[in-house]
Amino acid sequence: MSADYWRSTQRERWKFTAEQLSKLHQEVSHNDLKSGIDDPCQAWDDHIRIYIYNLVQTLGQRLGCRRRVLSTAHVYLMRIFTKISIHEMNIFLLVTTAVYVAGKTEEQPQHIRTISNEARVLWTDYMPSEATLIAECEFYMIEELHGCLIVHHPYRSLSFLCESMADTHPWLVLSNEEFQGIWAVINDSYASDIPLMYAPHIIATSALYMTLVLRPQLIRPPRPPDKIKARIDVLASYLGKSAIDLEKIAECVQELVSLYARWETYDQRQTHLRVLKTLSLEKP
Questions:
Q1: Is it true that 5-150 and 154-264 share their CATH fold?
Q2: How far apart are the C-alpha atoms of 116 and 126, rounded to whole Å?
Q3: CA angle 131, 132, 138 (to 5 degrees)
Q4: Measured between alpha carbons, how far apart are the two ends of the chain, in Å?
Q5: Domain extent listing, the chain
Q6: Contact between residue 153 and residue 68 where contact means Cβ atoms under 8 Å apart
């Protein structure tokens, strides 16, 4: 495991193209079919992904976890579900374990009984009562991840971008509202496959582009149209002169746009009922 993304297992073993990810999920679905599970309503899809994202967020907020802990937990779960079906394990136990392991990795550990108790408060009917099951699931998770626990996130790349842009042109100095908007887009990206498909600096730059170019009216006071265009031109010039792969940025931005479109159609209750079917439970 390396502190350098370019030599990390994240890049060498856990980075995929969209086609590769689709093939992996198809293989998991095929294994479901061989096991006699052929209900499309219980298949892995974007709404299940958003549902799991919300589970991690809810547990993390209750535990007071730092953002990096939650982001690392999200990546663990994304990786796990390229290998197993949502039918193979209790999702609530798996989410709890991911947050538990991520806390250790990011040096904000939670006592196993604390995290077990908090998870049971949130998901009383669905979370096993034995804290020892989290420990057992931890060994399983680490094995499935091949011990690759270090995760590189876009937050550091964002800080570097902000400093570099500020040194380049005064119009590229970000306001606090803009910075928070970019940070929020990065956080949202963990509800998709984006962290498995793109390098951290690509995600950070794409979130910046989304915030400054595509959604400016949502995160800062309106500027005169001529100044907005001039600023975008300066940003485009900056990105054009950088070594950042603009084609990858365009792809990642499209993935973010698609994510927000899917979020518009997301139904929490219906997805919850689907998840309960995977647990063979009747309670809503």
A1: yes
A2: 12
A3: 100
A4: 42
A5: 5-150, 154-264
A6: yes
Query: What's the pLDDT tens digit per position in 138-187?
Result: 999 999 999 999 999 999 999 999 999 999 888 889 999 999 999 999 99
Contact 159, 205 (CB under 8 A): no
Q: How confident is the model at residue 70 (pLDDT cuts 50, 70, 90)?
A: very high
What CATH code is assigned to 5-150?
1.10.472.10
* pLDDT tens-digit map of 235-249: 999 999 998 999 999
DSSP 85-98: -TTSS-HHHHHHHH
Distance of alpha carbon 181 from alpha carbon 187, whole angstroms: 10
Angle at 184 between CA 78 and CA 142, to 5 degrees: 25
Name the token pair of 191.
């509800």
Could you tell me which residues come within 8 angstroms of residue 5 by beta carbon, excluding any fewer than 6 positions away? Answer: 11, 152, 199, 200
CATH fold label, 154-264: Cyclin A; domain 1 (1.10.472)
